[in-house]
Amino acid sequence: MSRPSVTPDVTTRTAGRALAGVGSGNFRLLWFGEGISVLGSATTGVLLPLLAVVELDAGPGLMGALTALAWLPWLLIGLPAGAWVDRMRPRTVMIVADLVSAVTLLTVPVAWWLGWLNPLHLIAVAFCGGVATVFFRTAYVSIIPMIVVDRGLETANARLIGTESVMQITGPGLAGFLAQRLSASGGLLTGVVGFLVSALCLWRIRPADRITAVGPEESGTLVSRIAAGVRFVVHDRVLRTFTIIGGISNLGLTGYTSLLVLHLVRGLGLTPGAVGVVMMIGSCGGLLGSLCATAVARRIGTGRASTVFLLVAGPSAVLIGIPTDGRLVALTVTGLVLVGLGVVAGNVIRAAWRQRYVPSQLMGRVVTATQVVNFGTMPVAGFAAGWLGTEFGVRPTILIMAGIHALACVGILLTRLGRTRNLPTSPEAAA
Known about the structure:
mainly alpha
């Protein structure tokens, strides 16, 4: 199979500043800022659905639409965003995205206090936040190798994702407390603060400027530069496999997640505070995954570890939809913990691998090409879950979507990657 030609990745030269390890001030600023930002986002991720259910009497249709509109920007602007970000300073992109997210989210409590809040407003906020996320996450992948030396990427990713997991544990519990003590809308201010703190920390970071040779694919039109990233993914066996599995898996994950709060409140009869506790305990799996990922990968190999964690994350999702009343909610919590463990641990391993594997001058376009598939299935999942939940019920829909996720994860066993000890270190090695 022919492969696209790419300019060699030049990683040893920097402009003005040298790369440092995970103990550097730059990394600590990124680490702290992202931790606070994720805490706000995790809190918001529970409060927005609660606000829709409790204050606006939302049904499956609106819940699915909120999820779908949050991920739809990946389909609409994902590919050009990658090409744009590859020609911009990642730090600047991330700061602007944080500020846009903060202002957009602030409109929700303001509208609620004024008595103007309605479903269309929440949908618009979800969409605008999704647009900002596309640019932020694309730049985020590019900035880490500009701060941390190559040999520290696993540790850096483990710390970042581990902190995200801790905040995703704390966030739902904080959300439940705020919803009970104040209101769901007032609690959204934590998300606003998180975005502003992230922007401030990023403003103080001084990343190294990577100098790479510019080839014809990087100096062409927007369409040709987008095509270069897409070709790289399509022709690369490893990236192509992970992209397909990730897209199908996210279809199932997003489908059942979009209805989970509705199921916990109306199906299992839990209070907003109890919902926060369930989500908080369930998020512990992500922390466990971030803590064990690097050690497992070193012991059994990155390829085998990736496969093992996919198998942990897949079938356990079915447990989430089994309970029919609050007495069996422990099964839902167990499923959430195991899914979080497998998904986060796998993400730690594959994130560090991808940062080495993909040439830096193509990073933004390759990331968005894969994420258009990975995240592009999510709006489909939101709309599908809303329709299925309305037609057949919330719990059956959760079980269907969990089954789709499980089949996608188990599907790794049908590929060569499922029998590979270590993931290839370069496209040439993979070929």
